[in-house]
């Protein structure tokens, strides 16, 4: 019997896991099991070395589906993501994403379809790495800005947390619409637009509030 396993990586035990699962089911996916890593850096630790991520390599069987919010959950960089996707495809596992509803399936034998699929994998993995690097730079700029502010007025508390900010940035990277992002994260369209225009300030706001 085949199964669909939803893999998530969240910063803390309660941070956005329920929301991610709800989002997946709202997109029409049936989830049989949820496996989640908490507090594990996605840019430092490969999937196979994460406490829960490595379980996927033992649990997934031919015909199963691995569901993730976005391809960045599958590795720390371009090479890691592409290697992970291709490993599971060779095992007969189908990989699907909640964002944009992408499907990566190793079953096709048509060379043109294979070429298109592989090009899409490469593009999405490169996009994930570029977004991770941009986020890291924004975090550094945000921390420096918060330090420069010192004890001055912290401003209004952000309506998003760090995981929510990551969701906004991920969805912006793949061209999702402002309204779609706002609904997915539970913030206003204006908040999404402000994050898009100045990600460093968004990071600084989180740093000032210790979030």
What is the H/E order?
A: EHEHEHEEHHHHH
At CATH level 3, the topology of the largest domain is: Rossmann fold
Radius of gyration: 18 Å
Whole-number tally of structural domains: 2
CATH architecture of the largest domain: 3-Layer(aba) Sandwich
Query: What is the CATH class designation of the largest domain?
Result: Alpha Beta
Shape: elongated
Average pLDDT rating: 82
Main β-sheet description: 5 strands, mixed
Number of helices: 8
Structural class: alpha/beta
Strand line-up across the major sheet: 2-1-3-4-5
Let me know the CATH homologous superfamily of the largest domain. Answer: Resolvase, N-terminal catalytic domain
Q: Estimate percent helicity.
A: 40-55%
SSE layout:
Elements: E1 4-10, H1 17-26, E2 33-38, H2 53-59, E3 65-68, H3 78-90, E4 94-97, E5 103-104, H4 111-149, H5 162-173, H6 178-185, H7 189-197, H8 199-208
Keywords:
single chain, alpha/beta, five-stranded mixed β-sheet, 8 helices, elongated
Protein architecture, described:
- This protein has 211 residues and is α/β, with parallel strands linked by helices.
- It folds into two domains: 4-125, Rossmann fold, CATH 3.40.50; 129-208, no CATH class.
- Helices cover 51% and strands 11% of the residues.
- The protein contains eight helices and five strands, in the order βαβαβαββααααα.
- The chain has helices spanning 17-26, 53-59, 78-90, 111-149, 162-173, 178-185, 189-197, 199-208, and strands at residues 4-10, 33-38, 65-68, 94-97, 103-104.
- A five-stranded mixed sheet has the order 2-1-3-4-5, sandwiched between helices.
- Helix 3 packs antiparallel against helix 4.
- The longest helix is centred in the middle third of the chain and has 39 residues, at 111-149.
- The protein starts with a strand and ends with a helix.
């Amino acid at each position: 019997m085949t199964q669909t396993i939803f893999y998530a990586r969240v910063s803390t035990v309660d941070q956005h896991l329920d929301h991610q699962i709800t989002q997946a089911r709202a997109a029409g996916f049936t989830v049989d099991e949820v496996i989640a890593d908490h507090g594990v850096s996605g840019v430092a630790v490969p999937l196979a070395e994460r406490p829960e991520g490595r379980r996927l390599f033992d649990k997934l069987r031919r015909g199963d589906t691995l569901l993730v919010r976005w391809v960045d959950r599958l590795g720390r960089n371009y090479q890691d993501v592409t290697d992970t996707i291709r490993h599971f495809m060779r095992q007969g596992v189908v990989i699907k994403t909640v964002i944009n509803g992408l499907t990566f399936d190793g079953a096709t034998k048509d060379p043109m379809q294979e070429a298109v699929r592989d090009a899409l994998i490469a593009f999405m993995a490169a996009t994930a790495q570029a977004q991770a690097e941009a986020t890291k730079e924004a975090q550094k700029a945000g921390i420096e800005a918060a330090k420069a502010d010192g004890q001055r007025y912290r401003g209004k508390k952000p309506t998003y947390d760090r995981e929510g900010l990551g969701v906004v940035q991920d969805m912006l990277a793949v061209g999702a619409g402002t309204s779609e992002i706002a609904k997915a994260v539970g913030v206003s369209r204006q908040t999404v637009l402000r994050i898009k225009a100045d990600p460093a300030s968004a990071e600084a706001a989180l740093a000032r509030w210790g979030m």
